[in-house]
Design a protein that fits this description.
This protein has one domain. The chain is mainly alpha-helical. The two termini are 15 Å apart. Helix content is 76%, strand content 0%. The model has no long low-confidence stretch (mean pLDDT 91).
Length: 123
């Protein structure tokens, strides 16, 4: 799970940087995925230590939930784009939806991992 956390952190960091430079460095908010990504990388590194793994992974799951909730506001925009409507900042919507999907996938995988650990007596 810690490798998945590290991977998510790297992907979110790349997404944030790509969004920021892709928009011509107009808004610092385009870097939000990168800020989340940095924290995921830190949690993934902390989880390499067996003594802190459980806490780091629960922290990562909570952070993914915050990331999913915060980026879910891009969903109506992507629906508009799919239906052919014009939107103000399509790149921002794509970035929000990408972050939402990555975080939701991580949450699903984390819950599966937690259930498996509980089943195997690693509580």
């Amino acid at each position: 799970m810690q490798n998945l956390t590290l991977s998510l952190g790297i992907l979110l960091s790349i997404l944030g940087l790509a969004s920021y430079f892709g928009t011509g460095q107009e808004s610092i908010t385009a870097l939000i995925p990168m800020f989340f990504g940095i924290v995921f990388v830190i949690l993934g590194l902390v989880a390499k230590n067996e003594n802190y793994r459980k806490h780091a992974m629960h922290g990562a799951a909570g952070l993914a939930l915050l990331g999913a909730l915060g980026s879910a506001r891009g969903i109506p925009g992507i629906i508009d784009i799919i239906q052919g409507a014009e939107v103000a900042r399509p790149l921002a919507i794509y970035a929000q939806v990408a972050m939402f999907l990555m975080c939701v996938i991580f949450i699903v995988r984390a819950v599966q991992s937690f259930r498996e650990a509980r089943k195997n007596g690693f509580v």
